[in-house]
């Protein structure tokens, strides 16, 4: 009797499985072990994404800042500065997980493919502007096709993370799990950065290859400390606030060690914003006094390396290329950023509407000049429209939420967004993978909050139609 179950097995199915297993085993024997391992891991991730979108997102969140980079080839284009194509583990994860998720939504019709949110059209407009400007650049030999393709593919990655979040989150518990995992990842990144301090120099994020980018780590930490501060401002649990305060301390030490002046300015704006909010919104006198004391005494508390880095801005010895502003001679790095603004305003007149194409213009370490020169006025307007929608609906989500945790998360996102806008004056913040993937993850969580109405812990998939359930007067375009 115990073998009766085997009698129900279809012999044809058994033969099919056996043949497939033999074919896979034979295929593995013909390729390199590393390739076979990669194929096996890719297949496993594809299966995970198909079975559980939450598990796939969990893997992706951890890999956003903790994945290694791989140089796979040389690329052309003036904006690439002769560097190679740099791919990271999460680039492959996004592709594999994306196929798994799309396959799942195609088979399970109730899931729906794309939820309508207030950011869908702005994202579409900006991506179309990037694509058309780059195609024009390729046609007129201003853009290397491979370079432009890979850079635009990076943009799609950011937005894919956003759409995957808003299309898979169905309950508040998921949001808290994703935020917790994001904070744990940030803690590990901060520990890694702090461990680099004794060796001297500027700290960077893990697995950044031979040349790290302290400015990238600084932007990421500015955004994350805003999320932590927003949660601290509204969280009612004393234990939770203490844990968040400890995490904020680790982030602050790491951020200062990046010696990124753009990040310092962004951090200052973030702290001043929260200083105002603690008094005007929360009316928390003790927290206000703590932040005010920190800001007042910060010039005396800052490490000497930070003071030296800031002073270098206006005390660098005379060198070619320096610019004077109000009789203050700026260092070559700051002067180069100002030159990029001047160059963008001058050069875009050659191609005012579509620009030179993505990567078609010279390298610029400033966001708006880069957008203007690469995608012209059309790209700039669509990009600013996207930024406007992000801020507008972030603020509306904050005002709409009644739950303290959700309100703190929305506020942290809005203030972090403001910090990144300031950071982008001296960096290509909104095209940097390690900043934008966490940013769009949280953006998706904030945008989906209005779907989870007060009192509802879970929204069934059958009720998640293709229409975003913001109040009608807020969801207009």
What's the story with the biggest beta sheet?
Answer: 2 strands, antiparallel
**Total strand count, please?**
4
The end-to-end distance, rounded to whole angstroms, is: 66 Å
The ordered string of helix (H) and strand (E) elements is HHHEEHHHHHHHHHEEHHHH
- The largest beta-sheet arranges its strands as 1-2
Low-confidence stretches: 1-9, 76-84, 461-469, 472-477
Structural class: mainly alpha
Shape: globular
Radius of gyration: 24 Å
State the helical fraction. 55-70%
Q: What's the number of helices?
A: 16
Q: Averaging pLDDT over every residue, what do you get?
A: 81
Chain-wise SSE layout:
Elements: H1 11-30, H2 33-51, H3 53-66, E1 69-74, E2 84-88, H4 89-107, H5 120-139, H6 145-168, H7 172-196, H8 214-234, H9 238-257, H10 261-280, H11 285-301, H12 304-315, E3 324-325, E4 328-329, H13 332-347, H14 367-400, H15 404-423, H16 433-448
Précis, in short:
This protein has 16 helices and four strands. The chain is mainly α and about 475 residues long. The model is unreliable at about 1-10, about 75-85, about 460-470 and about 470-475 (pLDDT under 50).
